[in-house]
Design brief:
This protein is an alpha+beta fold. It is built from 8 helices and 7 strands; from the N terminus they run ααβββββββαααααα. The chain has 2 domains: 114 residues, Sandwich (Jelly Rolls); 60 residues, no CATH class. Helix 1 packs across helix 2 and helix 6 packs across helix 7. The chain is elongated and about 55 Å long. 27% of the residues are buried.
Length: 208
């Protein structure tokens, strides 16, 4: 029989919360849910009612461009990741959040989070730490997409997200890396075949 999740252990071991008062408050108000593949946790333009933390599974954030195409902004699989597309918790969401595999997610009411940020120094330290990591991940991805060739973007993805390559549809990975699904499929085939030719590298520049 599967053991129930120990909320205190999750917030302590995964999120690094050491303050006893904050641990107790978070654990007492946390709710765990199994969310099915394809569920939208948040729609762009809507307001958040809770803050969600990933326990297991895969989630993506995406936005819609001027031509109506979905653009994947990030792919999330690390336990403890905050599933929020904005640092301003009271503002409308700039992106949608979708579950890509059956996932376990912890939620905490946004009103409680707001009160903790006004009264708890430990909660503010946690917020800043999570926000710093999220910003680093976001801008590192943007750096890779804007500065590297298609082949090197793919190799970066393999190095940094090896668990996702066979769990996420090609179209979402390609969108995240700023290339077409056709280019991504060719890169994957070339890598499995033992490397990249000079012509491949020229094609990478053209497709970047």
């Amino acid at each position: 029989m599967e053991q129930p999740l120990d909320f205190k252990a999750f917030f302590c071991d995964v999120l690094g919360v050491q303050d006893d008062a904050l641990l107790t408050t978070l654990a007492d108000h946390a709710a765990l849910a199994t969310v099915r593949k394809g569920t939208r946790l948040l729609e762009a333009g809507s307001l958040q009612s809770s803050i969600c933390f990933l326990v297991s599974g895969v989630v993506r954030c995406f936005s819609i461009d001027a031509d109506g195409h979905e653009i994947t902004d990030c792919l999330i699989s690390d336990p403890g990741s905050v599933l929020s597309p904005t640092a301003d918790l009271s503002a409308p969401a700039p992106s949608s959040v979708e579950v890509l595999s059956d996932s376990e997610i912890i939620s905490i009411d946004l009103a409680l989070v707001g009160r903790l940020l006004k009264t708890s120094l430990a909660a503010n330290h946690l917020y800043i730490r999570l926000l710093t990591k999220a910003w680093y991940d976001h801008f590192e991805t943007r750096r890779v997409v804007s500065q590297l060739r298609a082949k090197d973007r793919y190799l970066w993805f393999l190095d940094n997200h090896p668990d996702l390559i066979n769990r996420v549809p090609n179209k979402y990975i390609a969108s995240l890396l700023g290339m077409t699904p056709v280019t991504l499929s060719r890169l994957r085939a070339d890598l499995r075949g033992g490397g990249f030719s000079f012509q491949d590298q020229l094609d990478d520049v053209a497709n970047s």
